[in-house]
Amino acid sequence: MTALATTAAPPGVAVVVDRESAREFVDEHITPYANDFERAGRLPEELLERMSQARLWAPFLPLELGGTALDLVTLGELHEEVGRGCSSVRSLLTVHTMLSWAVARWGTAEQRQRWGQELASGETLGAFCLSEPGAGSDATGIQTTAVRTADGWVLNGTKTWITNGQRADLYLVFARVGASIAAFLVPRALPGVGVRAIPEILGTRASMLAQVSFHDVELGPDALLGPSGFSSGMVLTGTLDLGRYSVAAGSVGIIQACLDACASYTTQRSVGGTAIRDYQLIQAKVSDMVTDVRAGRLLVAEAGRLKDAGEPATIVATWVAKYFASTAAARHAAEAVQVHGANGCSGNYPVARLYRDAKVMEIIEGSNEIQRITIAAEAYRGMAL
Amino acid sequence: MSVFEQDQILAFIRDRYPQAEIEATDDIFGLGYVNSLFAMELVMFVEKTFGVAIPNDELRIENFQTAAVMAELVQRLAPSPAGAGI
Question: Is the distance from CB of A183 to CB of A235 less than 8 angstroms?
Answer without folding.
Answer: yes
